[in-house]
Amino acid sequence: YRRLHSRETRLSKFNQTEIKAMLGSYTKVLFVRDPFHRLIATFLQGMGISQSFSSFVQEVLDSGMRNGSVAWKPLVSLCQPCLIQYDYVVMFGFLGQELGHLLRRAGLPAGSLLPELTDSQVQWTYRWLSEQMFSELSAQQKQQLSHFYHWDLAAFPFSSSFLSD
Description:
This is Carbohydrate sulfotransferase. By secondary structure, the chain is mainly α.
């Protein structure tokens, strides 16, 4: 296809035939992260530095889907997992286990390319942060967040997410 290797990066700029050809010729990997952890990371990276976590969450909820940042929009709306058949879905917190396998499947030398990953420390830290941040939210905010990320929680196995309670 003439535009198969064009500089354009958004799939929406291509027609259905070109999209199908491109998606069929690549190994598609989707990296997913608990939506509540994504909110915490965004908050800690400075997007909510001058406010409380509760105020930041309220800002996210008020912005909704249309005006929301890519940093906190639901993954389902960003990655279209119902339309794109991903070859691999890698969960944040299991990168050390999954990336080596993925690199070997791609024919790459896994050992030399991987950084040192300490998944158990990451999981423990986010569990602790989640407990602290979740306790700052009102019951209504908790319910609204669960509703906002409903499709992410249904599409991916975030069984230990505070939002799935």
